[in-house]
């Protein structure tokens, strides 16, 4: 059985810069959900964690595509 994925190619292959939220998460030592919540400025994520994740995002040139 073949699985068809209709997401845009940049979502499947890490966006224009080649990195995705899983790369950011691994580098920051957090889960991909934490990266997503940081991008949405969730109050459930500590200021320190948000700063770390955002620093890694900047270093990798990661920009969320939502």
Automatic annotation (TrEMBL):
Residues 23-66 form the HTH lacI-type domain. GO terms for molecular function: DNA binding. Gene3D superfamilies: lambda repressor-like DNA-binding domains (1.10.260.40). Keywords: DNA-binding, Transcription, Transcription regulation. SMART domains: HTH_LACI. InterPro entries: HTH_LacI, Lambda_DNA-bd_dom_sf. PROSITE patterns: HTH_LACI_2. Coiled coil: none annotated. It holds the Pfam family LacI. PANTHER family: HTH-TYPE TRANSCRIPTIONAL REGULATOR GALS (PTHR30146:SF109), LACI-RELATED TRANSCRIPTIONAL REPRESSOR (PTHR30146). This is LacI family DNA-binding transcriptional regulator.
